[in-house]
Amino acid sequence: MNSVRQVPDAVPVLIAGGGPVGLATAVELAHHGVRCLVVEPRETVSWLRPRAKTTSARSMELLRRWGLAETLRSRAPLAVSWSDEAVFVTGLLGREITRIGGCFGLDLVGSDLAAEPGQQVPQPLVEEVLREAVGDALLTGWQVAGLQEDADGVTVRITSGDEEREVRAQYVVGCDGPRSVTRAAIGAKYEGRQDARPNFNVVFRAPGLAERMPHGPAVHYWVLNPAQPGMLGRLDLKDTWWCIAQGVRAEDADPVQLVRNLAGADIDVEILATDPWTARMLLADRYATDRVFLAGDAAHQNPPYGGHGFNTGIGDAVNIGWKLAAVLHGWAPASLLATYESERRPVAADTIEEAARNMATLAPELADPALMGDDAEFEKVRPAVAEAVLRTKDSEFHSLDLVLGYTYAGSSIVSSGAGERLPHRWLAPGESLYDRLGPAFSLVGDQRSPGAAVVVAEAAELGVPLRVVDLPGEPLALVRPDQHVAWRGGDPSGAVRMALGHPR
């Protein structure tokens, strides 16, 4: 991986943290032709703690927008066609209780609902693909140690071992995680709570386990054994697996025995990594100053159930990225940047609450001792447990209303009745409506409509890049760089000015 060896003295945007959200912010800025510097302490990406494993359909649409969706899919160990099911069992080698299909938008291949289905892929691979896209804007082996904002910019102190440098930036985006230096520097604080229950992750190798397993492909296997409840899944189609044991403290954990308990047999296990954690429902009380912005885990944390974690941060990255580019290129006023917090913080709040609801019923709550009895006992209790699974877990695996349906309705830069993601459809085999959109603003619809010329003229007057997408017979819609609708129908006068935060 190429890294910046000479630390620049100044840069338009400095990004603190090179995890998936920081890298996505850099890719978004590059998409608009804005230089940046990503400061990241890790020289390489570790595969030992894969963390997130679900890249949502919405994140995949944004990766498509950057030209990276197919790259990620081609390198993902599990093809999207491999499975879209979650299977609930007494043990990995035990009896099946029920299953849920169409999980995480993995079944959206070819659907008009989305330009891309979701993708099961370990977070380290997402980071590697984004690192390659960012290229020499990534500075590894350094970390942000402090910053000082003034009226004209931000002075950022970065360190590497005993070496210390200062970099001047016009803007800073803090993607530096739960212990964010950036968040502390702007005086923001987390608000929220932490779950009382401990969790213990294990990444392990188990040769031959897949061949013995009777339940077929699945993205999740939920083990409803009261003696050892938890979840497992495959990291690849070889021998590497992950598991989460719920209610297990690190000091009490025997990783090999834990895996064997979840499997329900004395299997051969090689432990590759362990990771104790507790779920947090946290939201920063503020996201920004005039020149410093928080994104990803620096701004919000939620439980992993539902697969929303870093995907919410990718939405942050695109929102702040296009707005910074618009301001830096001079076709939007600085006041546009104030809409980042007002648009993204409510989305994070909704995501935290949905993930917390998903966490309210986990494997320990669904487990029933009778499931572990003889066949007669199992069959007697299985229908009631299956009903409880389907009733309590359906929303966790089917959350497209949040993933694809969040809106910026009520934002000061969208008109009444707008704010949602532009409804998707296929125009031809393999050609998405989204593929026709420009990197900046797009005017979509019948260009013979009287309002079309008004919008085009206003964009030209303001110097706003605008791509025209002619769809004869369709109503007009002004679409933002993030594919959300800024204006549709009604009086087009001032629509572009409104969408960029100019005074009305």
From TrEMBL:
Top-level lineage group: Bacteria
Q: Where is the FAD-binding domain?
A: 11-354
> What cofactor does this chain's UniProt record say it requires?
FAD
Gene Ontology MF annotations: FAD binding; oxidoreductase activity, acting on paired donors, with incorporation or reduction of molecular oxygen, NAD(P)H as one donor, and incorporation of one atom of oxygen
Q: Which SUPFAM superfamilies match?
A: FAD/NAD(P)-binding domain
Q: Does the keyword Transcription apply?
A: no
User: Which keywords describe this protein according to UniProt?
Assistant: FAD, Flavoprotein
Quote the Pfam families the UniProt record gives.
FAD_binding_3 (PF01494)
Q: InterPro entries, from UniProt? A: FAD-bd, FAD/NAD-bd_sf, RIFMO-like
Q: Which PANTHER family match?
A: BINDING MONOOXYGENASE, PUTATIVE (JCVI)-RELATED, TRK SYSTEM POTASSIUM UPTAKE PROTEIN
- Write the protein's name: FAD-binding domain-containing protein
